[in-house]
Amino acid sequence: MIFDVSLPIVLFLIMAATFLLYGKYERKMRSFLGGRELRLRDTVLIVVAIGVMVTILAFIPKLNIIRVFFLAVYCLVSFMFTYMVVPRWYLSILSPVAFLFLYFFYWNEYFLNLFAVIFVIYVSTYLAALFTWKTVAGFAALLTLMDMIQVFGTQYMVKSSENLIMLELPAMIILPTFPAGFPEARIILGLGDVFLASLLVTQTTRKFGRKFGYVTAAIMSTIFFVFETVLLNFLLGYFPATVMVVCGWSVAVGIRYLWDHVHPNQKMLSFGKEAGTS
Fold it and tell me: How far from the centroid of its chain's Cα atoms is residue 144's Cα?
């Protein structure tokens, strides 16, 4: 039996870090975004745009175009988030400069994972302020549907992922299986899946409180572990991880609503709704 605990643990830590960071800087981010929030039709356009981007990445003949585009986006996001936290441009510019220096001169799998984690936490924390409970549910459903089509149907998601892997861009997390079922095994998880998981947990934390946010992250990581174990033993290959993420989130939220319905006057395991996440 082959199983892995490294990726579920890393996923849990990223989700927890995101909603904790969001709780600390929520007011700043909402102010920075002008208090804007996405509507359901906006989420449809975003998912369509993501699907188009995946298709383009699968067919671009010159991979250097992908590299330049991704590096530019990463540097911009890194600068903007750092500037929001530390409003000094000469300090904020250090993060993208450090990333570019390491990427071109000292790049390896450790730095790839490090900057991938930093990037997805930046993006998840920053964009969480744009979503509401309603729009995040719609976004999750649409993104999962698009992911399934692009993996099982067109397979463009597979091709675009292979291009990103070839360029060694921090657009995914690559970890060895632990405990190792076989030494050469590597688990790959795209940042889009991690972003969705972090976004869902952050919105759950906003609605039900920080403690239930931890519970949700733990349940999602456990469901992810179950799916991953089945895939490692019976279906090696690409699988839409958004399905695993949404299933885990649905179980956690379903348990919460069921408990509130059966015990309307009791706090679930003393994890009742808190005032905010800070």
Answer: 13
| Angle at CA of residue 205, ends 121 and 12, nearest 5° | 50
In one-letter notation, the amino acid at residue 198 is S
Tell me the domain boundaries of the chain: 6-270
Measured between alpha carbons, how far is 8 from 64 in angstroms, rounded to an integer?
32
Phi–psi pair at 23, nearest 5 degrees: -60, -35
What's the rounded Cα separation, in Å, for the pair 132 and 127?
11
Nearest to 174 by CA among 10, 3, 1: 10
pTM of the model: 0.92
Return the SS3 of 176.
Answer: strand
For the record, the structure tokens of 277 come out as 């996440």
Going by C-alpha positions, the residue among 109, 152, 271 that lies closest to residue 205 is: 271
Q: In the structure encoding, which two tokens stand for residue 214, read together?
A: 């931890």
Q: What is the end-to-end Cα distance of the chain in Å, rounded?
A: 42
Cα–chain center distance at 157: 16
Going residue by residue through the chain, which has 278 residues, state the pLDDT in tens, using 9 for 90 and above. 788 999 999 999 999 999 999 999 888 888 888 888 999 999 999 999 999 999 999 988 788 888 999 999 999 999 998 888 888 898 899 999 999 999 999 999 999 999 999 999 999 998 999 999 999 999 999 999 999 999 999 999 999 999 999 999 999 999 988 886 565 678 899 999 999 999 999 999 999 999 999 999 999 999 999 999 999 888 767 899 999 999 999 999 999 999 888 877 766 644 344 434 43
Check if the beta carbon of residue 249 is closer than 8 Å to that of residue 200. yes
